[in-house]
Structure formats: C-alpha cells, structure tokens
Design goal:
Layout lengths: L5 E2 H8 L2 E3 L5 E2 L1 E2 L9 E4 L6 H6 L4 E4 L12 E3 L3 H12 L8 E2 L4 E2 L4 E2 L4 E2 L4 E2 L4 E2 L4 E2 L4 E2 L4 E2 L4 E2 L4 E2 L3 E3 L4 E2 L4 E2 L6 E3 L4 E3 L6 E3 L4 E2 L4 E2 L7 E3 L4 E2 L4 E2 L4 E2 L4 E2 L4 E2 L4 E2 L4 E2 L4 E2 L4 E2 L4 E2 L4 E2 L8 E3 L4 E2 H24 L8
Length: 343
C-alpha cells in the first residue's frame, strides 16, 4: 500500500490536536517510536512509554497532555487519545486503493446473475446462477460464489473466498482471503455401524458491516440459519458451527471455535482460542479470556476464565490457592525427613 504525505500542521488539523514545534515537517509514513525516522509520525499513549519517546528519532509524535514536554522529538501533537488519532491519520496517509470497475475476461458469470453498478470482478472469479452482487462490490481473484448467493452493496471479498449456496451477505461486509461461508456443518447420525451425514438445508447470513478474517469458516445451518449480527468482527481461523447465532458488535479473536446451536449475545468478546460447546447461551457484554473452555451458559455482563471456565475472580482465587498449595508441599517435604522414624 502506497502512502501519501502530510505536514505536521495538517496532521494536527486532521485530529484536532494542539501542535507544538515545527508544523512544516513533512510526514510520509507511520512507524513505532523505536523505528521512526525524521519523515515518520509515531505515537505514545501514556507516560509508560516516556523512555521510548525520549530516544525516538520520529519527525513528529502524537502524545497525551502528560507527555507534551520532555526529551525526544520537538514536534508534538497533543491529543486526548493518541491511538484513536493515529487511526485517523492512517486512513488519510494510506488511502485504500480500489481496483477499476469491470469484469475480468477470465471470470465466469452464471445465467441470471445480477451485477450492480461499479463492481470489480477479478481474474478467475466464478459466479453461479442467479447470484446478486450489489453496487461497488470488489471480488478479488479466485472468488467462488455459489448459486443464488446475495451480496450487498460495498462489500469486499478477498482472494479465494468461497460463498456456498444459501449464503446471504449484507452491505459493507469484508471477507478476507480464504474465508469459507455456508459449507455444510459437522453433523452426523451415528447408529453403531457408522456415521451418516445429516443434510444441511439452512442458510448462512452475515448482516451489514461484518468482517471475517482469513481462513475462517462459518457453516450453514442444518434446518435453521447460522447468523452473524451487524458490526461483528471475526479474526483469522475462527470456526462457527451450524445454527449458531452471534449478536451485534461482537469481537471474536483468532482460533475461537463455537459449536452448533449456541447463542452469543451482543457486544461479546471471545479472546483467542476460546472453545464453546454446543447449545449454550452467552449473554450480552460477556467477556471470555483466552484459552477458556465454555461448558455452560454465561450470564450477561460476566467475565469468565479458565478450563473449565468459571467467573474470573473464582479462577484467580483457585490459581492463587494452587500456588499456595505448592508452597505448603515444599514445606512438608522439608519437615518430613526431620521426623524420627516410628517403631
């Protein structure tokens, strides 16, 4: 991604910050404090990073009021939230490059497909029959879209994305490379002689502004739909089982697995490698720590940790007790040899 160029004064105006120092310094890139040069903008979110700031060679830095003065770069832009300001600068300095609208000659378009205005369809894209693609969508190379799939306006499908039949995608959705939507779930009828696959006839629905990371899989429902709510973001390598319903504005980190028919509320955070068993309910605003294993329902607003997961304070107390137990065992081992043998 190519970058633009801004003066320090333009950066201050963009983020509504107070400029200290030379407003004419030209910013061509954004870098961490320890790797920034004279043409780079950096940032420090708190006094915790004062030592790094003192030694930085950055041309300008975004800082809170507590770091407005001191050693280090003389040109500073004082803002209440340096990280939030940095995000605004990134959007301005590194604008997203949009491919030209049009259909690559290697793409295959099925009968009855409807393609909106200003859509970009890349090399070797395959659209099935009766597919609907909204306006201004971007489909990168190798995307495969099954029969009857609907894609809303302004959505972006990265290289190699697969959307199976029964998938419906809202507007402003981002699917990163290798994501698979709407494949059959892991469902079998076992009778002692073997495992018979259960047909999956439900859909896979992504509401508006959902983002799905690379190589994440969201299965279609068996007889119900699998649904991901508006504004929810899924990291790479997430597995969402059949009939799962995820609420709005959730954050689901890398490696999470959610088994079938579980309900996840709104504004839930599942940290990396959380495992959730089937047919559970996780309430709104729940927070689940990394590597936790969820075997029961989680109340709204609760924070859970551990394997098996429990309320976070209980988990911390249990861990502290284990550490104390180790110290007690050490003390017992010192005392036992000192005892006189019986008999």
């Amino acid at each position: 991604m190519t970058s633009g160029s801004l003066t320090a004064r333009a950066v201050a105006d963009l983020v509504g910050g107070r400029l200290l120092g030379d407003g004419g310094i030209r910013i061509n890139r954004v870098r961490p404090l320890d790797r920034a040069g004279p043409d780079a903008l950096s940032f420090a979110v708190s006094v915790r990073y004062a030592a790094d700031l003192d030694s930085s060679k950055a041309g300008a830095v975004l800082v809170p009021e507590a770091l407005a003065a001191g050693a280090g770069p003389a040109t500073r832009i004082v803002v209440p939230d340096p990280y939030g300001a940095l995000v605004r600068v990134l959007h301005a300095l590194y604008p997203r490059e949009s491919p030209e609208a049009g259909v690559d000659p290697t793409a295959r378009i099925g009968a009855g497909a409807v393609i909106g205005a200003d859509v970009s369809i890349g090399p070797y894209v395959v659209l099935g029959k009766n597919v609907q693609v909204g306006a201004r969508c971007r489909l990168a190379q190798g995307v495969s879209v099954g029969d009857g799939v609907v894609i809303g306006d302004d959505s972006v499908l990265g290289p190699g994305v697969i959307c199976c039949p029964g998938t419906r995608i809202g507007s402003r959705v981002v699917l990163k490379a290798g994501a698979v939507l709407g494949g059959d779930g892991f469902g079998y009828l076992s009778d002692g002689k073997g495992h018979t696959r259960i047909p999956h006839v439900g859909g896979c629905i992504l509401e508006d502004e959902v983002e799905v990371g690379s190589n994440t899989c969201i299965d279609r429902g068996s007889i119900d739909d699998t649904v991901v709510g508006r504004g929810t973001k899924l990291d790479n390598l997430v597995q969402v089982g059949h009939n799962v319903r995820i609420g709005e504005r959730c954050l689901i980190m890398a490696g999470v697995g959610i088994a079938g028919s579980t309900r996840v509320g709104n504004d839930v955070i599942l940290a990396g490698h959380v495992g959730v068993t089937d047919h559970l309910a996780i309430g709104d605003r729940a927070r689940i720590a990394a590597k936790s294993a969820i075997f029961g329902d989680v109340p709204a607003g609760a924070s859970f940790s551990g394997h098996p997961a429990r309320p976070h304070r209980q988990f911390l107390r249990a861990q502290a007790a284990m550490y104390r137990l180790a110290a007690i065992v050490d003390e017992l081992e010192r005392l036992v040899p000192a005892r006189a043998p019986r008999g």
